[in-house]
Write a structure and sequence with these properties.
The chain is an alpha+beta fold. 25% of the residues lie in helices and 30% in strands. The protein is built from three helices and seven strands, in the order βαβββαβαββ. The mean pLDDT is 96.
Length: 157
């Protein structure tokens, strides 16, 4: 069973560490270099612990940590969303089990309103997931460039 757990300040180091692994994985799609300490830059990380408009979740399956999600209300395309999926991952060992879809659906249900979700066109699994999740809401599709697409939709009926 999937559950969402809000990340608490005491969990900052854990979130930092697993986010670094996620950012490393994203170098398959983005040319982001490591810094001199071997870390990947994430400019808004600390704001997830200070900005009340930002939310982070650990995604658990049967009380085992299997992923995370970062939510904020800041637009990729100059609009005014209620929520933007800033980051989302299910760890590789737990993929192909529909956990991502279940977690994404739970997050959308818990946060009704206008959404933006961005994905990289080279990330075929992410593209399939987000298009499948958004399909029921008839999303508008925006292409930021040849590599990035933003889906905009409203989960309130």
């Amino acid at each position: 069973m999937i559950s969402l757990q809000r990340v608490q300040p005491k969990d900052r180091d854990l979130l930092w560490n697993i986010n670094q692994k996620y950012l490393y994985e994203m170098t398959n799609f983005y040319d982001d270099p490591m810094d001199e300490n071997g870390n990947y830059h994430y400019g808004h990380f600390d704001e997830y612990f200070t900005d009340p408009k930002r939310t982070t979740y650990f995604i658990n399956h049967d009380n085992k940590l299997i992923g995370f999600a970062f939510l904020c209300p800041y637009s990729y395309i100059g609009q005014d969303p209620d929520y933007t999926m800033a980051e989302f991952t299910i760890f590789p060992a737990y993929r192909q089990r529909h956990f991502a879809r279940e977690a994404a659906d739970m997050i959308l249900a818990d946060h009704p309103g206008k959404w933006e979700i961005k994905y990289n066109e080279k990330n075929q699994a992410g593209k399939r997931l987000w298009n499948s999740v958004a399909e029921a809401y008839c999303p508008k599709v925006y292409h930021l460039n040849e590599e990035e697409t933003v889906l905009v939709f409203n989960t309130e009926k």
